[in-house]
Specification:
By secondary structure, the protein is α/β, with parallel strands linked by helices. About 35% of the residues lie in helices and about 20% in strands. It has a single domain, classed as SPOUT methyltransferase, trefoil knot domain (Alpha/beta knot, 3-Layer(aba) Sandwich). It starts with 5 loop residues before the first helix and ends with a helix.
């Protein structure tokens, strides 16, 4: 077995990627402090073809060397927008027909393994601050809360890891038509 080179992977250009149909998912970063986490979310959004990343509140925005350090150019391929207020964005996305889910530990949350995206439905997933998580007011306006089942002694995952887990789960269920 031979490890593949960059040339073997035959990746699309940034322009080709931008014109490609994406999965019906946007990511909303709610006051994320770490610029490295922001960059990692961009890279995940690129890898799994998310439509867009919204950077809300104090979340840092490109161009910034700490974001680029982990994004590795994904800030050029992934559509993004900075929005001052997460709650206002959630309300706007809902008005545009998105089902909004907060990724958080909360009462009546849906375990990720039990979540089944509806075919044809657009989704927005809110990921929160590294210390405080998703703001309670945002959770109150969410259509649902997704919780990643965890079995160890720690009570949370790093936001970039949580994003990778949730987006891969969403993509794999979307591709297989899980319901």
């Amino acid at each position: 077995m031979r490890k593949l080179s960059i040339d073997d992977l035959n990746r699309e250009s940034v322009e080709e990627f931008k014109n490609k149909k994406k999965i019906p998912l946007v990511l909303v970063l709610d006051n994320v402090r770490s610029l490295n986490n922001v960059g990692s979310v961009f890279r995940t959004a690129d890898a799994f073809m998310a439509e867009k990343v919204y950077l809300c509140g104090i979340t840092g925005k490109p161009p910034h060397r700490d974001i680029e350090k982990t994004a590795l150019g994904a800030t050029e391929s992934v559509e993004w927008e900075h929005v001052p207020d997460t709650l206002e964005l959630v309300k706007d996305l809902k008005a545009q027909g998105y089902q909004v889910g907060s990724v958080e530990q909360a009462e009546r949350s849906i375990k990720l393994n039990a979540f089944a995206p509806e075919p044809g439905q657009k989704y927005a997933l809110v990921l929160g601050n590294e210390v405080f998580g998703v703001e309670q007011e945002v959770i109150n306006h969410s259509d649902f809360v997704l919780e990643i089942p965890q079995f160890g002694t720690k009570h949370s995952l790093n936001i970039s890891v949580a994003t990778g887990v949730v987006v891969w789960d969403f993509l794999s269920k979307t591709l297989t038509g899980a319901k």
